[in-house]
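example protein:
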Amino acid sequence: MLSNPYIVKPCTEDVEILFTDDDLLLVNKPAGLLSVPGRHPANKDCLITRVQRQYADARIVHRLDMDTSGIMVLALSADSHRALSQLFAERKIIKEYEANVYGTIIDDHRLIDLPLLCDWPNRPRQKVDFHHGKNAQTWVERVSQHPDGWTRVLLKPVTGRSHQLRVHLAEIGHPILGCEFYAHQRAVSMADRLQLHATKLEFCHPNSGETILGISNCPFQ
């Protein structure tokens, strides 16, 4: 066990390349790997440094939390980086996640609309703040119900706030299993990792104009 809480436990899983062309990469990030280097000198291992060993021009466009696994898009040039960043800013990239959450979700389909703000004394935690928070919305679809007391859901974020999916699910009483930031101890103990995986990215290719559909199969049940 690492004695320093600021040092990330090494991730032994590889980054999988799902698709590549002259402009971009689609990759599968394992859980436990940072998207970009951490501030502590010991936390330099991350997705972008690994990918740059093979693709020196690769650039981060967006991020996944360290504990979240799944699909990410990386740019391979300054032009594609600008174009992809603009697509994210304009919400023209379709993102989907799968998660296992605590308890029984009754609604087949619902929108969570709760503004979020950084909880500065406890960062990187976020919190709901109706006075100063930024607009944040997540569509939740129930996929299946399990007798062990959890529900499989499909998550479609409209916005892309930090920790948005984790906070939103916790706020409606269904924290994501294995979430040590926002779940109660029972939900944390029901999984050996954060049960959140980015399964889909769909967008218009910044150069060719073709539709790019990237899929990453969920690694947990």
About this structure: The mean pLDDT is 95. The domain at 16-215 is CATH 3.30.2350.10 (Pseudouridine synthase).
